[in-house]
Amino acid sequence: MSKKPLEGIRVLDFTNALAGPYCSMMLGNMGAEVIKVEKPGTGDDSRGYGPFVNGQSGYFVSVNHGKKSVVCNTKDPEGVEMFKDLVKHVDIVVENLKAGAMNRMGLGYEELKKVNPKLIYVAISGFGQTGPYAPRPAYDMVVQAMGGVMSITGEPGGKPVRVGASIGDIIAGIFGAFGAVTALYKRAITGEGDMVDVGMLDCQLAILENAIIKYSATGVVAGPLGAVHPTVTPFQAFETKDNYVIAACGNNRLYAAFCNALGCPELIDDPRFDTNMHRNQNLKLIGDLLTEKTRTKTTAEWLKILEEAGVPSTAINTVDKLFTDPQVAARNMLIEVDQPGMGKLQITAMAQKLTRTKSCPRKGAPLLGEDNAAIYGEMLDFDEAKLTELKEK
């Protein structure tokens, strides 16, 4: 098995909750050594998030597996100096505090690059390091709402609906990891470090592909459509005899195959529906006509028919079904870690696959301060007496 691509890269993870930890988790999954720096007593806030097993947070494990943990009180001058000394030995720092918070502690990029000029500094915050909103705090739901995602999610005329996964945090973490490896590549060429500035609000705009261009080109403000695509038709959830089936017809060939499979070939060349533009203009009508057909069979029956017809389709899986799905298993998307005190847990693996780099189970998440002696002893030459002194302090 080939070495993982980021082996030899060391990350100082000064993050909390989800966006920052997700970023450093991605780097760790590709081989980087990730040292999580946590506040004394409670550590990362997500250690207090459920679900819990024997008093430990499964949430924390899900985004902090494979990392090491040290405790450092950065509100104390000695802790600030310890942090700076650690920075001398790492390639990347990841933090997700409010903009300006690291500067106030004396740990901002301008200060840290003095002790490590080749440092890559990834700052993930609600609104980035510049602009009138920069000092504001933010969480996932705040940026989902502010960034327009909630305005196009849910049923028409319904109450506001948050996207079920924390995409405000997770997408910012993904952009942070992408920025980090981009800066690493640049450093390999120029020898220079850099700062990566990721705003969660920016990331929400970056994924609004249809809604942004729709308003820019036509002046139409997108709204929620439920389980219907705004510009591709038919591309939605259809009622069946017992549930729903998803069918996605991204071109005329697939639309024709769908109509033939449903037993309504007369709709293929109907001038109201013969092109995607016409179908989209008659979105409700074509949806109603097709639903009359899909209601006549069960979801399982339709899935067999549509698969044979080559139409992209699926049932709506509940999460438990993912644990027995053969495609999920074939792609090794659920891997097992043995978490001390919790037992064996299944967590998600890397979504990106490198042909010569196989994903494999990693160790679980660290206990708070589990690696104090090893990290501070190796990197800062602290002896047992010094470690005892710091612990007591």
What's the SSE blueprint?
Layout: E1 10-14, H1 19-29, E2 33-38, E3 52-53, E4 56-57, H2 58-64, E5 68-71, H3 77-87, E6 92-95, H4 101-104, H5 109-115, E7 120-125, H6 140-146, H7 167-190, E8 194-199, H8 200-206, H9 209-218, E9 235-239, E10 244-248, H10 252-262, H11 276-281, H12 283-294, H13 299-309, E11 313-314, H14 319-322, H15 326-330, E12 334-339, E13 343-348, H16 372-380, H17 384-392
Parallel strand pairs: 1-2, 1-6, 2-5, 6-7, 7-8
Antiparallel strand pairs: 3-4, 9-10, 10-11, 12-13
User: Which stretches of 5+ consecutive residues score pLDDT under 50?
Assistant: none
Percentage of residues in DSSP E strands = 15-25%
Distance between the amino and carboxyl termini: 45 Å
> Which series of helices and strands comes N to C?
EHEEEHEHEHHEHHEHHEEHHHHEHHEEHH
CA radius of gyration is 25 Å
Helix/strand-derived category reads alpha/beta
Strand arrangement in the largest pleated sheet:
5-2-1-6-7-8
- Give the overall average pLDDT: 95
Helical coverage, percent range: 25-40%
Work out the number of β strands.
Answer: 13
How does the overall form come out from the CA principal axes?
Answer: elongated
Count of alpha and pi helical runs: 17
Major beta sheet summary: 6 strands, parallel
Description:
This protein has about 400 residues and is an alpha/beta fold. The protein is built from 17 helices and 13 strands. Helix 1 (about 20-30) packs across helix 7 and helix 7 crosses helix 8. It is elongated and about 85 Å long. The two termini are about 45 Å apart. The model has no long low-confidence stretch (mean pLDDT about 95).
